[in-house]
Design brief:
There is one protein chain. By secondary structure, the protein is an alpha/beta fold. The chain has four domains: 311 residues, TIM Barrel (Alpha-Beta Barrel), CATH 3.20.20; 55 residues, no CATH class; 204 residues, Rossmann fold; 78 residues, Sandwich (Immunoglobulin-like), CATH 2.60.40. 29% of the residues lie in helices and 20% in strands. Strands 10, 11, 12, 13, 14, 15, 16, 17, 18, 19 and 20 form an eleven-stranded mixed β-sheet that branches. Helix 9 links the parallel strand 5 and strand 6. Helix 8 runs antiparallel to helix 13. 49% of the residues are buried. The structure holds beta-D-galactopyranose.
Length: 698
């Protein structure tokens, strides 16, 4: 597997994070101390300028980058590289005062006041122009700086604006989408119902809080428009760098699996992707393993945006978060483990928010590598330094990638459609949680699963799981058929294929768009259960699964019935079916059950595809990264007990010892990374050999 080293000049993983030295320009002693401490902690990269606009341009048209140049030079002289952010996430006060259009309007249409951050109207031409000017200056001044690694666009973008200009752009967007034909829009949105027909695009309004919120097609289109408008804004920033510094890559920092922006649309514009991770460590509702399984899911969401290369963990806290209901400290050892998880999942960095705690301001109590105490002699600093050492031990693995042969199909439009749709249970739809818990079953057994669009090229995958794929995108049905015909195993669930991209219900049976032939079933009724209602699915071998929340009543066509309902008026009716189709199989699970119960089915699918599952001790997470030199197996113990794992032969990189004879003991919160080298010039490692289809076999 070819390596894809993101930053050859660094020669390993990035370690460091957001540095906000603008606050300390009158304290050269602190800035000097920062450099000393960064070296001590093994920091090789910082992010500068995320919120520095007003420092660059204290008043309109008067620029000052000298302070930044001095800091970047000093850092570089010490071997520390810079990720340079564009400052558009923090509007200067003078800018909002001079150009009120820069600030977004809320759902009630009222313009917000200056304040906070990312309070932007994406359409504002004045704001776009001002951003372009400052970006150009940055590119000109720093584009050829040898310490510059990467451009970082703004910060965690997302959010809707309801100003008159955005409303106008929405109408223009709709006119393009419906080819200038208002009749097309009316048909797509089924506006004759409730007499909501429009006679002109100028009459269409965004979904204001006191306006139109009863047309499902409009609601989902507004979300798509918002993504389109944000990406359009981002493109204007990127264009500046593409033109002036084509050699420098560009990224944005995403937030786990945010509903606010379709990351796939944004990722297309970026050279590499990154995200900010803030799990609720040690909370009182779940085990740490469960919390981190959720974090691993988010890692997979981000990794899958560009699975062919590593991504970056752009932010995490070295200790606590702030401003949550509870801001609990990570227990000793957990920080290192969480950083190793990021690397295991495919990140080539561990970057923090932030390097030094601010004295005042909003986030003064958020964790930082250097505390208000100001010394290296703290638990947090020592743990961060340990991460620095750990990353340098693993540096060979930078540029390697994970390889998943199973995929979960998840679409942002589908999430929006389900959230907005008036069906099923308001409280129980829980699309993301449903995806996550199914994904977690594969994770629990060490099976890597990417999270991709229903229209993605699935040829590299053998198993695809599509939970609650209520809305089908235009290419989805054909894609799924192709996948199964070519030998793929597909599993869909209740609430599949009810509506098209405009939220129009399919006629002639769900799942629509021809998918009822693929699955060999038609879903005739959806039963939404009250929280205490239960049913069961019974299989021939006597196994039973408990049903809750949702049960569909199926009409069976060509599918083989695997399991039937045990109760209620649909007792004896099909609940789990399998339809052989082409060289593959299309499975349908018509009711919601706990994913742990479904493991027997997943295991069967995996077995038929020759994908091995692992028996991992409880609380242990496993991943593999692959490179030309061999495979790196990561084992992470999220419990406070020791755990033994069978690693197979290789060299354990954290200790330098050889592994393989007998079980490897992981300490509480301990980890092992075992490199199994590909014999030089010899036969490739059998675990990464590929079969005739180019799939890796173990
Ligand atoms: C992130 C954000 C950072 C900082 C951090 C800690 O979401 O990007 O700028 O605010 O949270 O709260």
């Amino acid at each position: 597997m070819e390596k894809n080293v993101l930053f050859p000049q660094v020669g390993g993983f990035l370690h460091g994070g957001d540095y906000n030295p603008d606050q300390w320009l009158d304290r050269p002693d602190i800035l000097e101390e920062d450099l000393r401490l960064m070296k001590k902690a093994g920091v090789n990269c910082v992010t500068l300028g995320v919120f520095s606009w007003v420092m660059y341009e204290p008043e309109e048209g008067r620029f000052n980058f000298d302070w930044l140049a001095g800091i970047m030079d000093r850092l570089y002289a010490e071997g520390i590289y810079t990720i340079l952010a564009t400052p558009s996430a923090a509007h200067p006060a003078w800018l909002d005062a001079a150009y009120p259009s820069a600030v977004r309007a809320g759902r009630d249409g009222r313009r917000c006041r200056h304040g906070g951050r990312v309070n932007t109207c994406w359409s504002s031409p004045e704001f776009r122009e001002k951003v372009k000017i400052v970006d150009r200056k940055l590119a000109e001044r720093f584009g050829s700086h040898p310490g510059l690694l990467l451009w970082h666009i703004a910060n965690e973008l997302g959010g809707e604006c309801f100003c008159p200009l955005c409303a106008r752009r929405f109408r223009e967007y709709l006119a393009r989408r419906f080819e200038g034909d208002i009749g097309k829009l009316n048909r797509a949105w089924w506006t004759t119902f409730w007499g909501h027909c429009y006679s002109d695009f100028s009459q269409v309004e965004p979904p204001y809080s006191d306006g139109e919120s009863s047309i499902p097609g409009l609601l989902v289109e507004w979300k798509r428009f918002t993504t389109w408008n944000i990406v359009d804004f981002v493109k204007t920033e990127i264009a500046v760098f593409k033109e002036r510094t084509p050699q420098i890559p560009v990224t944005m920092n995403f937030m786990s699996f945010s509903e606010k922006l379709d990351y796939r649309a944004a990722a297309k514009e970026l050279s590499l992707v990154s995200w900010d991770s803030y799990p609720a460590f040690h909370n009182d509702r779940e085990t740490l393993y469960d919390t981190m399984a959720e974090t691993a899911f988010y890692h997979a969401v981000i990794r899958s945006l560009k699975p062919e290369k590593p991504y970056l963990l752009m932010e995490c806290t070295p200790s606590v978060v702030h401003g949550m209901s509870y801001n609990k400290q990570k227990r000793p050892g957990v920080h290192r483990l969480a950083c190793l998880q990021a690397v295991a999942c495919g990140s080539d960095s561990v970057l923090y928010f932030q390097w030094r705690k601010n004295r005042g301001g909003c986030e003064q109590h958020h964790g930082a590598v250097v505390d208000h105490l100001g010394t290296a002699d703290t638990r947090i600093f020592r743990e961060v330094s340990q991460v620095g050492e750990t990353l340098s031990r693993l540096s060979r693995a930078a540029g390697t990638v994970t390889c998943a042969r199973t995929a979960m199909l998840v679409d942002w439009d589908n999430r929006w459609a389900l959230n907005e749709g008036h069906l099923a249970g308001k409280e129980t739809k829980e699309y993301v949680r449903t995806c996550m818990t199914i994904w977690k079953e594969f994770f629990r057994h060490g099976v890597e699963m990417n999270v991709v669009s229903s229209e993605a090229d699935l040829s590299g995958y053998r198993i695809a799981v599509a939970p609650m794929m209520y809305m089908l995108r235009p290419g989805t049905a054909a894609n799924l058929k192709r996948f199964v015909e070519n030998g793929g195993q597909l599993l869909a669930t209740y609430m599949t294929g009810y509506v098209d991209e405009h939220q129009l219900c399919y006629l002639g049976g769900f799942p629509g768009d021809g998918l009822s032939q693929l699955f060999g079933v038609i879903s005739e009724e959806l039963d939404t259960l009250y929280p205490s209602d239960r049913n069961r699915i019974r299989f021939e071998d006597g196994t039973e699964w408990e049903v809750f929340d949702y049960a569909e009543v199926l009409r069976v066509g060509t599918a083989e019935v695997q399991g039937v309902y045990a109760e209620d008026y649909y007792k004896g009716g099909a609940a789990v079916t399998c339809n052989p189709f082409g060289k593959g199989k299309a499975w349908y699970a018509a009711a919601r059950v706990a994913p742990e119960e479904m493991w027997t089915l997943f295991e069967k699918m995996l077995g038929e595809c020759g994908i091995p599952a692992r028996r991992l001790p409880q609380g242990v997470e496993y991943h593999q990264r692959l490179g030309e030199e061999g495979t790196y197996d990561f084992y992470l113990n999220w419990t406070t007990e020791p755990r033994a794992v069978e690693t197979g032969p290789g060299r354990e990189l954290l200790t330098g010892r050889s592994a393989g004879e007998g079980a490897w003991e992981l300490e509480p919160y301990g980890a092992a990374v075992v490199l199994r080298e590909t014999p030089r010039g010899g036969a490739p490692d059998p675990r990464i050999a590929t079969d005739a289809n180019g799939w890796k076999q173990e």
